[in-house]
Write a structure and sequence with these properties.
single chain
């Protein structure tokens, strides 16, 4: 399973703090993108995990797959889906909290 990771080096953290101090919050510090790109990579990773589980299932049905690989792939896909559902629930909850705020 390919889970996107966020690597923070001391220099990138220092650059981020400097951008906050200077008020330059709009542009990301590097070309890796922002939150939207990280979210897109995470969603693509979940989709890839699901495809791998499907492929392992098809191999097992055809009689050429390994049962351990199938169980591992399905478990990883299930965990990825549960994670996506948890994140979705938190986003919906945050949206509802914002809509309930009075101005």
């Amino acid at each position: 399973m390919s889970v996107p990771t966020l690597t923070v080096t001391p220099s990138s953290a220092a650059n981020a703090y400097a951008r906050v101090q200077s008020g330059g919050l709009d542009a990301p510090a590097d070309a890796s993108g922002g939150f939207g790109d990280a979210l897109a990579r995470a969603i693509q990773g979940v989709a890839d995990t699901g495809h791998k589980a499907d492929a392992a299932s098809m191999q097992s049905i055809a009689g050429t797959g390994n049962l351990t690989d199938l169980a591992t792939a399905v478990s990883q896909a299930e965990l990825a889906l549960q994670t996506v559902i948890a994140v979705r629930d938190r986003v919906v909850q945050a949206y509802q909290d914002v809509t309930r705020m009075t101005i």
